[in-house]
Amino acid sequence: MRLVIQRVKSASVEVVGTKKVVGKIGKGFFVLVGVGKNDTEKKAHQLAGKLAKLRVMSDEFGKMNLSVRDVGAEVLVVSQFTLYAYAKDGNRPSFIEAADPKKAREIYEHFIDKLKNLGVKVETGSFGEYMKINTELDGPVTIILES
User: Fold this and answer.
1) Rounded Cα gap, residues 78 and 71, in angstroms
2) Where in or outside the cell (predicted)?
3) CA–CA distance from 132 to each of 32, 47, 57, 138, 144 (Å)?
4) Beta carbons within 8 Å of 116's beta carbon, 6+ residues apart
5) Which residues have a Cβ under 8 Å from the Cβ of 99 and sit 6 or more positions away?
6) Burial code of 39-64, b = ≥16 C-beta within 10 A, e = fewer?
7) Marked catalytic residue, from 40, 82, 135, 142
8) For residue 19, what pLDDT is reported?
9) Contacts of 76 (CB under 8 A, 6+ apart)
């Protein structure tokens, strides 16, 4: 599994063509989640735990020292199979390392459930849909985690 985590002041996701906002947060993390073909629910469980404890939210001195749970922040999670793009050979990426959609959805949903069980306020995008994403970055702070 691969996570691209951006600290944000706000973020929202709208399904293109519907004008419907499916996920919206204030201060917190915008997280792109890629699921690989060899990923498991155990890996999703571990990364959810790591994300919930990740100390990159600012404390009263402006230092990255607190987690989203510590500050009552939110997380917006969006599936992103293109995190498994392979473009070393040629100009057109291959996605053969990405999980098939059924497996990816199961692991993605397990990841979200685990975050919620850890006390994190979670909003989501719409799995498999083309989405318009709006973010107001805070920092910017971008962290990549991989299982």
Assistant:
1) 22
2) Cytoplasm
3) 13, 25, 25, 19, 22
4) 122
5) 35, 36, 37, 39, 81, 107
6) beeebbbbbbeebbebebbbeeeeee
7) 82
8) 85
9) 8, 11, 12, 13, 23, 24, 25, 28, 29, 30, 31, 122, 123, 124, 125
**In order along the chain (147 residues), what is the average pLDDT of each group of 10 residues?**
98 94 97 97 98 97 96 97 93 95 98 98 95 96 96
The amino acid that residue 140 corresponds to is P
Find out whether 98 and 34 touch, Cβ atoms under 8 Å: yes
Q: Quote the CA–CA distance of 66 and 57 in Å, as a whole number.
A: 5
Q: How many residues does the chain have?
A: 147
The pLDDT of residue 34 is 98
Determine the Cα–Cα distance for residues 143 and 81; give it in Å rounded to an integer: 18
Locate the domains of the chain by residue range: 2-146
d(CA 106, CA 40): 9
42's CB contacts (< 8 A; 6+ apart) are none
82 is catalytic: yes
What's the rounded Cα separation, in Å, for the pair 85 and 78?
Answer: 16
